[in-house]
Design goal:
Structural class: mainly alpha
Shape: extended
Number of strands: 2
Helix content: 40-55%
Radius of gyration: 23 Å
Distance between the termini: 52 Å
Strand content: under 5%
Order of helices and strands: HHHHEEHHHHHH
């Protein structure tokens, strides 16, 4: 018991539990909608991330925060979804906010929360789990002493493919209907994807990069070492 107590005391001293920025993230909790503390937390988040808004959006986000607090279109049913067995389970936070973002005004048919969506997406883009660590573990297995010339673009492509396979819970053979990769012919879709991979990757990059971003997309594909 003493070991647990000492560990807890150590964590209280080392963890940023009083960090006002992290505390403000409680605004994203759907269970806290309607509370005064949620408005204050959202206002802090918008001030911390003011660089993502232009002058017009700064006033709009304040109005959308207050609308979100009392919006009757946001029901308790939005907190739940059905699992594979058809049972009602709580939504993950990203799915809940996706439902909120898709709400439209009855009169104008415009989305209700375009600016608040920008703020929430910026918050949810912050790493809050073990994914960052797992990405480094994956890099350790790929970037060895014999593959030190592996470019970042190529590494990013490998990670994207691996995460896609992990999400679909399939192996690369299962994805293309191959039972024996040593004897079965290569699937034509795989060949097409390989030929189009660089073009598709560059198009995806361009859609992710805003007009204000200084990031420059390289013109030539990287090669695997």
């Amino acid at each position: 018991m003493e070991a647990y107590t000492n560990t807890a005391q150590h964590m209280k001293q080392k963890l940023p539990l009083k960090n006002s920025y992290l505390i403000s993230f409680t605004a994203l909790d759907p269970e806290l909608r309607g509370k005064t503390s949620t408005i204050l937390a959202f206002e802090k988040l918008s001030s911390f991330m003011s660089h993502i808004f232009n002058n017009n959006e700064k006033s709009k986000v304040e109005a959308e925060i207050r609308l979100y607090q009392r919006d009757i279109d946001i029901t308790k049913e939005m907190l739940y979804t059905s699992d594979e067995s058809g049972n009602q389970v709580k939504c993950t936070i990203d799915k809940y906010w996706s439902k909120v973002f898709n709400l439209k005004d009855d009169f104008t048919n415009d989305y209700k929360y375009p600016t608040l969506a920008k703020l929430v997406k910026a918050c949810l883009s912050c790493f809050h789990g073990p994914l960052a660590e797992s990405a480094f573990n994956l890099m350790d297995t790929l970037v060895t002493d014999y593959r030190t010339s592996l470019k970042i673009d190529s590494l990013d492509a490998v990670q994207t493919i691996k995460y896609d396979l992990m999400t679909s819970k399939e192996t690369s053979c299962e994805k293309y209907g191959s039972k024996n990769p040593m004897t079965d012919p290569i699937h034509k879709d795989l060949l097409l994807n390989m030929n189009r991979s660089w073009k598709t990757y560059q198009e995806d990059l361009k859609t992710c990069i805003s007009d204000e971003s200084p990031i420059k997309v390289s013109e030539k594909p990287s090669t695997l070492a």
